[in-house]
TrEMBL record:
Sequence ranges assigned to domain Yippee in this UniProt record: 59-156
Pfam families to which the protein is assigned, alphabetical: Yippee-Mis18
Protein name: Protein yippee-like
Taxonomy, superkingdom: Eukaryota
GO molecular-function terms, A-Z: metal ion binding
Alphabetically ordered keywords of this record: Metal-binding, Zinc
PANTHER family reported in the protein's UniProt record: PROTEIN YIPPEE-LIKE CG15309-RELATED
Species this protein is from: Rhamnella rubrinervis
Keyword Zinc: yes
Protein backbone atom coordinates (compact mmCIF):
# COMPACT_ATOMS: atom_id res chain seq x y z
CA UNK A 1 0.00 0.00 0.00
CA UNK A 2 1.26 3.47 -0.82
CA UNK A 3 0.60 6.33 1.55
CA UNK A 4 2.01 9.83 1.85
CA UNK A 5 4.31 10.69 4.69
CA UNK A 6 3.94 14.13 6.35
CA UNK A 7 6.69 15.43 4.05
CA UNK A 8 4.51 14.60 1.02
CA UNK A 9 6.80 11.85 -0.27
CA UNK A 10 5.09 8.59 -1.17
CA UNK A 11 6.31 5.64 0.89
CA UNK A 12 5.48 1.97 0.86
CA UNK A 13 4.50 0.67 4.25
CA UNK A 14 1.68 -1.23 5.86
CA UNK A 15 -0.19 0.47 8.66
CA UNK A 16 -0.52 -1.60 11.83
CA UNK A 17 -4.31 -1.70 11.54
CA UNK A 18 -4.03 -3.46 8.19
CA UNK A 19 -1.63 -6.08 9.50
CA UNK A 20 -4.06 -6.89 12.30
CA UNK A 21 -7.09 -6.99 10.00
CA UNK A 22 -5.40 -9.57 7.75
CA UNK A 23 -5.12 -12.09 10.59
CA UNK A 24 -7.84 -14.66 10.44
CA UNK A 25 -9.69 -14.91 12.73
CA UNK A 26 -9.12 -11.25 13.63
CA UNK A 27 -7.18 -10.83 16.85
CA UNK A 28 -8.59 -8.81 19.70
CA UNK A 29 -6.34 -6.39 21.48
CA UNK A 30 -6.89 -4.82 24.85
CA UNK A 31 -4.23 -2.18 24.39
CA UNK A 32 -2.16 -0.64 21.63
CA UNK A 33 0.55 1.80 22.56
CA UNK A 34 3.82 3.16 21.33
CA UNK A 35 7.14 3.78 22.98
CA UNK A 36 10.31 5.45 21.75
CA UNK A 37 13.24 3.25 20.76
CA UNK A 38 15.46 6.33 20.50
CA UNK A 39 14.20 9.04 22.81
CA UNK A 40 16.84 11.54 21.70
CA UNK A 41 17.55 10.86 18.02
CA UNK A 42 20.76 12.08 16.42
CA UNK A 43 20.56 15.32 14.42
CA UNK A 44 18.52 14.86 11.25
CA UNK A 45 17.19 11.41 12.14
CA UNK A 46 13.69 10.54 13.18
CA UNK A 47 12.19 9.09 16.34
CA UNK A 48 11.72 5.34 16.09
CA UNK A 49 8.53 4.02 17.59
CA UNK A 50 7.80 0.53 18.77
CA UNK A 51 4.22 -0.69 18.86
CA UNK A 52 2.98 -2.64 21.87
CA UNK A 53 -0.19 -4.62 21.71
CA UNK A 54 -1.63 -7.16 24.06
CA UNK A 55 -3.37 -10.13 22.48
CA UNK A 56 -6.35 -11.07 24.64
CA UNK A 57 -5.97 -14.72 23.66
CA UNK A 58 -2.43 -14.95 25.09
CA UNK A 59 -1.86 -16.18 28.64
CA UNK A 60 0.16 -13.60 30.55
CA UNK A 61 1.74 -13.03 33.92
CA UNK A 62 1.41 -9.64 35.62
CA UNK A 63 3.17 -7.86 38.46
CA UNK A 64 1.45 -8.90 41.73
CA UNK A 65 1.51 -5.29 42.91
CA UNK A 66 0.23 -3.22 39.95
CA UNK A 67 -0.86 -5.78 37.29
CA UNK A 68 1.67 -4.53 34.74
CA UNK A 69 2.09 -7.30 32.12
CA UNK A 70 5.58 -8.74 32.58
CA UNK A 71 5.78 -12.11 30.80
CA UNK A 72 4.06 -14.62 28.55
CA UNK A 73 3.19 -18.16 29.58
CA UNK A 74 4.64 -19.40 26.28
CA UNK A 75 8.06 -18.01 27.25
CA UNK A 76 8.44 -20.28 30.30
CA UNK A 77 11.48 -22.53 29.98
CA UNK A 78 11.21 -24.18 33.41
CA UNK A 79 8.93 -24.03 36.45
CA UNK A 80 11.42 -25.87 38.67
CA UNK A 81 13.56 -22.96 39.88
CA UNK A 82 14.19 -21.68 43.36
CA UNK A 83 13.75 -17.96 44.02
CA UNK A 84 14.44 -15.94 47.14
CA UNK A 85 10.95 -16.63 48.47
CA UNK A 86 10.12 -20.07 47.17
CA UNK A 87 9.34 -21.33 43.70
CA UNK A 88 10.28 -19.35 40.63
CA UNK A 89 9.94 -19.70 36.86
CA UNK A 90 12.66 -19.33 34.24
CA UNK A 91 11.50 -17.23 31.26
CA UNK A 92 13.21 -16.67 27.92
CA UNK A 93 11.83 -13.10 27.81
CA UNK A 94 10.30 -10.54 30.11
CA UNK A 95 8.66 -7.18 29.28
CA UNK A 96 7.87 -3.90 31.00
CA UNK A 97 10.68 -4.48 33.45
CA UNK A 98 13.81 -2.58 34.48
CA UNK A 99 17.09 -4.48 34.87
CA UNK A 100 19.23 -3.27 37.80
CA UNK A 101 23.03 -3.25 38.20
CA UNK A 102 24.97 -6.48 37.67
CA UNK A 103 26.46 -8.32 40.62
CA UNK A 104 28.11 -11.69 41.23
CA UNK A 105 26.01 -14.07 43.33
CA UNK A 106 26.65 -17.59 44.60
CA UNK A 107 23.47 -19.52 43.80
CA UNK A 108 22.62 -23.19 44.38
CA UNK A 109 24.04 -23.95 40.93
CA UNK A 110 27.28 -22.01 41.30
CA UNK A 111 28.61 -18.52 40.66
CA UNK A 112 26.54 -16.29 38.35
CA UNK A 113 26.50 -12.64 37.37
CA UNK A 114 22.89 -11.54 37.87
CA UNK A 115 20.88 -8.31 37.91
CA UNK A 116 17.66 -7.76 39.84
CA UNK A 117 14.58 -7.24 37.70
CA UNK A 118 12.05 -4.59 38.73
CA UNK A 119 8.52 -3.87 37.49
CA UNK A 120 8.79 -0.78 35.28
CA UNK A 121 5.62 0.71 36.82
CA UNK A 122 5.78 0.13 40.59
CA UNK A 123 9.49 -0.91 40.90
CA UNK A 124 8.66 -4.09 42.84
CA UNK A 125 11.56 -6.58 42.64
CA UNK A 126 10.15 -9.52 40.67
CA UNK A 127 13.25 -11.67 40.29
CA UNK A 128 16.55 -11.46 38.42
CA UNK A 129 18.19 -11.76 35.04
CA UNK A 130 21.10 -14.16 34.44
CA UNK A 131 23.75 -12.01 32.77
CA UNK A 132 26.49 -14.63 32.93
CA UNK A 133 26.94 -18.20 34.12
CA UNK A 134 30.48 -19.40 34.81
CA UNK A 135 29.89 -23.15 34.55
CA UNK A 136 29.34 -24.71 31.13
CA UNK A 137 26.26 -26.64 32.29
CA UNK A 138 24.59 -23.38 33.35
CA UNK A 139 25.27 -21.34 30.20
CA UNK A 140 21.74 -21.91 28.87
CA UNK A 141 20.48 -19.47 31.53
CA UNK A 142 22.40 -16.47 30.17
CA UNK A 143 20.08 -13.66 29.08
CA UNK A 144 17.09 -15.42 30.68
CA UNK A 145 14.85 -14.20 33.50
CA UNK A 146 13.81 -15.64 36.84
CA UNK A 147 10.45 -14.36 38.06
CA UNK A 148 9.32 -15.38 41.53
CA UNK A 149 6.01 -17.22 41.57
CA UNK A 150 4.91 -15.17 44.58
CA UNK A 151 5.51 -11.89 42.67
CA UNK A 152 3.51 -12.61 39.52
CA UNK A 153 -0.17 -13.34 38.91
CA UNK A 154 -1.91 -15.06 36.01
CA UNK A 155 -3.82 -12.94 33.48
CA UNK A 156 -6.20 -14.18 30.72
CA UNK A 157 -6.34 -17.75 32.01
ZN1 LIG B 1 4.31 -3.51 39.33
Amino acid sequence: MTVCSPSGKAQNWTPLALILARKSPPLQFSAIGFSFLNRQPARGSAHLLRAHFIDLTVRLYSCCNCRNHVSLHDDIISKAFQGRNGRAFLFSHAMNIVVGPKEDRHLLTGLHTVADVHCSDCREVLGWKYERAYEASQKYKEGKFILEKSKIVKENW
